[in-house]
User: Fold this.
Amino acid sequence: MSEKKHKYPWNHIIGFVLSIALTFLAAWTALSSDLPVMWIIISIMVLAVIQALIQLFMFMHIVEKGAGDAPWNMMFHAAVVAAIVVSGSLFTMSFGFTHDHGGGEHETEQHEEQGAHEGH
Amino acid sequence: MQLDEFFVTGEPLIYIGMAAIVLVSGTILFVLTYFKKWKWLWAEWLTTVDHKKIGVMYILLSLAMMFRAGVDAMMMRLQLAFPDMNFLNSQHYSEVFTTHGTIMILFVAMPFLIGLMNYVVPLQIGARDFAFPFVNALSFWSTFFGAMLFNISFVIGGAPDAGWTNYAPLAGSELSPGPGINYYLLGLQLSGIGTLATGINLMVTILRMRAPGMSLFKMPIFTWSTLITSFIIIFAFPILTVALALMTIDRIFGSHIFTLTGEGLPMMWANLFWMWGHPEVYIVILPAFGIFSEIISAFAQKQLFGYKTMVWAIILIAGLSFVVWVHHFFTMGAGAFVNSIFSITTMAIAIPTGVKIFNWLATIYKSKIIFGTPMMWSLAFIPSFTIGGVTGVMLGMAAADYQFHNSYFLVSHFHYVLIPGTIFACFAGLIYWFPKMFGFQLNRKLNIWAFWLFLIGFHVTFFPQYFLGLDGMARRLFTIGPEWFTLNFISTAGAFVMGAGFAVFVYCIVYSYFKSTRDLPGDVWGVGRTLEWATPTPVPKYNFATLPDVKSHDALIDMKEDGETTFDEDKLESIHMPNYTGQPFIMTAIMFFASFFLVFEWITLASIGLIGIIVMMYVRSFDYDGGYHIGVDEISKIENSLRGHDNE
Assistant:
């Protein structure tokens, strides 16, 4: 292999430090910021989007040319799978805690109810 | 902590296990020292980045784990052979079925298939190695150390006992205190790093490093199934990683994500687990389909029937695998609407799978079948797997599932798909590619013995279990009542026949090592259709001296017609190869110790391990090793000596 110049990977170092800092910021927001719950959720979501952008631009070669369309293809599929995970979990898990599905009350469900009440 | 809390005490069987571990490791250390093989071990195997050697190591790991989990299985069958047996107590039985399931899926099926992929895929697409050889070595060693971490649990600290599904809240720290479940979480986490990295590695390799002319639809079918499998790995494994991490935080740092108290949501574990778990079963079955397709078309001496529909069927199965997970917990009570939707998606999977079954049948229709041993496994797969598939559709009907759920009917169903599907494919694939890997054939007669023992043993073991399930026997029972005695006894007898089959198979490898002839031609079976058979046997470390232009998915058939080989003296160029390195081994060994400390919740020691890992990552980041070149003269010399036999 021909000798290449080994530039110090500042880009990666900054990205790495930023993503760690954002993680700590998110943890602090959730644990000890004393914001209202809605604002905690909103700020964590915003931090997550910034985090994703840092990953895409500083590590994932999204600005590089010449590699074809593979990254876009994978990003599309990742978005689909993420949507399935989130909406699928909501869909599946929310029905377990209501009683309006034909009156059939199952044992597991009752356990769930009890578990949830004990927590409050 | 007292020493008697550290080691598991008071179980005679576990003392036997300890003695066996000491004996086997002692023997290995002695043999390595006596024959002065330490340097060889380090220089040739522990530091290797060659995909062929890594593939072989994956398969060895998997065979060893198959022995361990197989012993677990036979212990369970012995306990269930007679009513009220007193061989294993309930706690020990729970530990045994947990480790049996976890090891069979994660440390037998996956490493075996990934080992075959490691060896075969670069050869099928005409690549020198994986896209990232260093990462490949790292993947293997993290799988290896993950498996070791999981395996030492039964002598140090106690094995996990919440089933391979590890459901919360049973697996939470209130109901399962102690290191057991931590072993499960961290062992899987460690090996999961390797699996995910392999998925990325294989995908890049297949997308970027194919021989000239090999478009996606000219790839061999096994490579296709590997590409789709790596796609599923990339999208499914992060879900497991997150779920494991959340439960680890729950158990070690006291959060309330899956706990009963503090607004935890225990059912979310089942949900996340199966969001990974269902794609996971396709991760272990799709490569198996690829292996059978290769073998069936080779030994039927015909082009694979419906190559394109086969590919689309794999893609469709992969897509559907992400939208069926709820069928693993229909009885959770998600409601009729949710269950109906997942019932329909589940049954839809039977369609592309059926397409594949008919394509295999059409491939062997009116063909001249050569009954090579890999073909026998493949032919046995079709009817056996179909029984598993049909019962799967029965389980997929949500209403009926309320009857079948958690019974031996289910146990029998998933063994009927996983054994004829994955395990038969592993045997078939290993026998098929064995001569390519090691330069000698496996003894046919012993192989046939192993095949019939295993096949008959399998059906005798699991067919009665369908009826046990219908008779109301629940899974994970540690004793049986007298009404289930007859069928259970038959099942146990079958399990020991299967065990004998495995023993004959291992003996066959040892026997063949001493007795088989070497000096094999490149196309060992004489029926090869794809590029891996164009290489000389044994395969030179750079794989291909030169590459042909690929015109169809049966590259070797075209090459034979045109009189081409992978050694065209006019096209020779020097070959760039990666250097071996000990970094992956050292890095994952540190991870192993860090995870081990975390299992016992020794946070300080675990943090020191974490620092060690970061240091190793730093070292790797500034490692500018450019590899080395093999000159044209040397390639000529190697190829001529290997092909001397071919040119006669």
Notes: Confidence is low (pLDDT under 50) at residues 99-120 of chain A. Residues 83 and 89 of chain A are 10 Å apart (CA to CA). Residues 1-64 of chain A form one domain.
